[in-house]
Design goal:
Strand order of the largest sheet: 1-2
Helix content: 10-25%
Structural class: alpha+beta
Length: about 90
């Protein structure tokens, strides 16, 4: 909680603590829409992130092709590895 939020909470709660108590048996509500800002935590996520699962059929395998490619950069030309893969029937 930041300093500004702490000051806001104190400015809302302090007058309630100093105010005279009501003579009735009913308690004085501490919160409400007119008593100041309410602080709540954001809802938590119960599930996990997105997960990609691959279940290839039998007799399938990955075939990969790799090569080196020249890339022109401000610091000079660089030899950079590249790779492409795809599924093939065996």
């Amino acid at each position: 909680m930041g300093m500004r939020a702490l000051i806001m909470v104190i400015s809302v709660v302090a007058p309630l603590a100093i105010a005279p108590r009501a003579t009735s048996a009913q308690p004085v509500p501490l919160g409400g829409p007119s008593s100041g800002p309410s602080f709540s935590l954001p809802p938590t996520r119960t599930g996990t992130g997105t997960r990609i699962e691959i279940h290839p059929r039998p007799l399938l395998y990955r075939r990969c092709v790799d090569w080196y490619e020249l890339q022109h950069r401000p610091s000079g030309t660089v030899l950079f590895p590249q790779m492409r893969c795809y599924w093939v029937r065996g």
